[in-house]
Amino acid sequence: MVYFKKMAVIGVGLIGGSLARVLREKKAVGEVVGIGRGEANLKRGVELGVLDSYTTDAKKGVEGADLVFIATPVCSIPQVVAEIAPHLSKGCIVTDGGSVKEYVVAACEPLMPEGTWFVGGHPIAGTEHSGVEASFSTLYQGRRCIVTPTGNTDPAALEKVVELWKVAGSNVPLMDPVQHDLVVAAISHLPHMVAYSLVNAVDGYDRFGGDLLSFSAGGFRDFTRIASSDPVMWRDIALTNKEAILEMMDFFSGYLEKLRGLVAAEDAEGLRTFFLNSKQKRDAIL
Ligand SMILES: NC(=O)c1ccc[n+]([C@@H]2O[C@H](COP(=O)([O-])OP(=O)(O)OC[C@H]3O[C@@H](n4cnc5c(N)ncnc54)[C@H](O)[C@@H]3O)[C@@H](O)[C@H]2O)c1
Ligand SMILES: O=C(O)C(=O)C[C@]1(C(=O)O)C=C[C@@H](O)C=C1
């Protein structure tokens, strides 16, 4: 089994905290150091047994680490790598959990000093909650973590990153970063754009002059759970996967337009077929 002597986790929230928890549980890491900006969250990480120690000084924290996991919002990942790069030990593997891969991998690979390696990754698992308090060791169990090697990726480093996600309980497909971004634009980014828009639209609808949202029940709440996700995380995803998200939003608008046409035309059979097709497709993934 893969083993790292010292793991540094930069950004100890849901994603970083959950990976630290499971790797500790499985005894795949010797020591875990948390690195971040907020002392209260890091202190809580030690209290919860997620971390052995913490520091707000990233340069110090990565000293002697053979694994660095970066789990900060996407736009900050290249900045973090630039800051730690000169302080990495030879042989260190740096990987991340960011939700967008082309932006991250293209920016980070060239920053790596000789004898150290960057391998991009993205667990397709999460919740709408943030911070170390929200982390749990089974988050990655039975889920996918997409790892995105390029032509520059060191095969041994890639193998170790794949292995660590397997230890965390995930299936680990390999994907080109550009393809990854198109896939997640469809299955993750579009649904978040729609959920955030739906809440804002209903909130902004003032025909009755009352608080419409307070009448919401199961359907609305289930559908919009993900609109409670962290706004900074989603700002960064929208900024760095712009083209793929726009393509999916336009494609989706076509379906909404089609449905609008069926409703307007009172096309009973068209409506039933539209809903049936969707129900069958969704039921099949449950
Ligand atoms: N939440 C999800 O469902 C989910 C799923 C998969 C991937 N991701 C990705 O994982 C990453 C982390 O998401 P999360 O849900 O764990 O967020 P989180 O808010 O729970 O944790 C992020 C942590 O990073 C810290 N941080 C922010 N900027 C920093 C910086 N510049 N330097 C050091 N620390 C910094 C924050 O204070 C926080 O403690 C993001 O890139 C996100 O896109 C999230
Ligand atoms: O379950 C959730 O709350 C999530 O939104 C997790 C989710 C997703 O499935 O879209 C969100 C963003 C990620 O990058 C990966 C997973």
TrEMBL record:
This is prephenate dehydrogenase. Residues 5-286 form the Prephenate/arogenate dehydrogenase domain. Keywords: Amino-acid biosynthesis, Aromatic amino acid biosynthesis, NAD, Oxidoreductase, Tyrosine biosynthesis. Pathway: Amino-acid biosynthesis; L-tyrosine biosynthesis; (4-hydroxyphenyl)pyruvate from prephenate (NAD(+) route): step 1/1. GO terms for biological process: tyrosine biosynthetic process. It catalyses: prephenate + NAD(+) = 3-(4-hydroxyphenyl)pyruvate + CO2 + NADH. Belongs to the prephenate/arogenate dehydrogenase family. InterPro entries: 6-PGluconate_DH-like_C_sf, NAD(P)-bd_dom_sf, PDH_C, PDH_N, Preph/Arog_dehydrog, Prephen_DH. It comes from Geomonas terrae. Its EC number is 1.3.1.12. Gene3D superfamilies: 6-phosphogluconate dehydrogenase C-terminal like domain, NAD(P)-binding Rossmann-like Domain. The keyword Oxidoreductase applies. The keyword Amino-acid biosynthesis applies. GO terms for molecular function: NAD+ binding; prephenate dehydrogenase (NAD+) activity; prephenate dehydrogenase (NADP+) activity. It comes from the Bacteria.
